[in-house]
Write a structure and sequence with these properties.
There is one protein chain. The protein is α/β, with parallel strands linked by helices. It is 28% helix and 22% strand. The chain has 2 domains: 186 residues, Alpha-Beta Complex (Quinone Oxidoreductase, Chain A, domain 1), CATH 3.90.180.10; 148 residues, Rossmann fold, CATH 3.40.50.720. It is built from 12 helices and 16 strands. Strands 3, 5, 6, 7, 8, 15 and 16 form a 7-stranded mixed beta sheet that branches. Strands 11-10-9-12-13-14 form a 6-stranded parallel beta sheet, sandwiched between helices. β15, α12 and β16 form a beta-alpha-beta unit. The chain starts with 5 loop residues before the first strand and ends in a 23-residue tail after the last strand.
């Protein structure tokens, strides 16, 4: 079948609210250069960070007009650039499209075809659904890096985390159980407690009716907790730091408390100076984009390969996404930020939108404790 000359793409002409600035356009199919591949996209998720990029509220800003989506997708190789080796036409691959900071931006994923450097491509087995494969390179990788690379949490240690019901939070629980790590999980609502326990969380703290600092002390005892991950920031992030034992460290990878905030006073973590100075506690950030900018291509592919194995072996379970065609982008974007929206909305290509057959079936959860 001859290669089409044009493709559909979801393009933002300027910074603004995504539902207002995005337009479905026809664009020429790009041509791969040396060490590049042309990918026919099969599925790509809609992350909240994708929407914040379009609003001008993320850690980098692309040149506009820009194709939306900047994180990940799954597709098949349609063509290879000259002198490109190691991959085959027709091979199914995950594209780690996360822009490296500092570094060049990778093509947006909300389009039917895109060009990517071959070191950004990871072959995936057919037993992984499109839904699972297109979500490998962000949330599961973030969970793996936080637990093993950033904090090096050891079997038997406590790990304290906020937003335990989030996608990354659930993956952290699954990974911790697999590695023999004990988790203290913070949630906002009482009705989430039993769900987190059923998932494998060892202890759950509900900030709706419990004091975070007091409960951590009761759970961990005199030895305390020395390692934590936080994606809420604000007052909750400050409480996490306060709850840690002397010499403890919290890695902040998100700021849910600041969502849609414009008041600079709300975009903070109000730490106690005495705790930071006299108890030598540390608070530092983690941003996947910057990690991709500092990790070597070999290290990045090694980490992605580990995530692929964890998902393929059903140690980590990625919730089944909800497929949408590009034409339904307004509905998909609204769902992406709706409270308790369930599966992540995915743009899909090739007539799969709205179908619930095997390509969209996620693996069941299977976790085991080390030792």
């Amino acid at each position: 079948m001859p290669m089409p000359q044009s493709m559909r793409a979801l393009v933002a002409e300027k910074v603004g609210e995504p539902s207002d600035v995005l337009r479905l356009e026809s664009r020429p199919v790009p041509t791969p250069e040396a060490s590049q591949a042309l990918i026919r996209v099969k599925a790509t998720p809609i992350h909240a960070s994708d929407l914040h990029v379009l609003r001008g509220r993320y850690g980098f800003s692309p040149e506009f007009p820009t194709v939306g989506g900047h994180m990940e997708c799954v597709g098949r190789i349609e063509a290879l650039g000259p002198d490109t080796e190691g991959l085959k036409i027709g091979e199914r691959v995950v594209v780690a499209a996360v822009p490296a900071v500092p570094g060049p931006r990778v093509a947006g994923t909300w389009q039917e075809y895109l060009v990517a450097d071959t070191h950004r491509l990871l072959p995936v087995p057919d037993r992984l659904s499109h839904s699972s494969a297109c979500q490998l390179a962000v949330n599961p990788l973030t969970a793996l890096l936080l637990v093993t690379h950033e904090l090096d949490v050891q079997p038997g240690e406590w790990l304290l985390q906020t937003a335990a019901g989030s996608t990354v939070g659930r993956l952290v629980i699954q990974l911790a159980r697999h590695l023999g790590i004990r988790t203290i999980n913070v949630v906002r609502r009482r009705d989430a407690v039993e769900e987190i326990k059923a998932l494998g969380g060892d202890e759950v703290i509900c900030t709706e009716d419990e004091d975070l600092v007091q409960r951590v002390a009761e759970i961990a005892g005199p030895a305390g907790v020395r390692k934590a991950v936080d994606c809420v920031a604000g007052h909750v992030g400050a409480q996490v730091s306060q709850a840690l034992a002397p010499g403890g460290e919290v890695v902040v990878y998100g700021a849910l408390s600041t969502h849609r905030q414009t008041d600079p006073a709300a975009l903070t973590i109000p730490l106690q100076a005495r705790s930071v100075i006299y108890e030598t506690k540390a608070v530092r950030g983690f941003w996947l984009n910057r990690w991709f900018g500092t990790a070597s291509p070999a290290d990045a592919l090694r980490a992605l390969s580990e995530v692929r194995s964890l998902v393929a072996d059903e140690v980590l379970s990625i919730p089944q996404g909800r497929p949408f065609s590009l034409e339904r982008f307004t509905e998909a974007i609204s769902l992406a930020e709706a409270p308790a929206h369930g599966g992540k909305p995915l743009f899909v290509f090739g007539g799969a939108a709205g179908r619930s057959g095997p390509p969209w079936r996620s693996a069941s959860v299977r976790v085991c404790r080390a030792g």
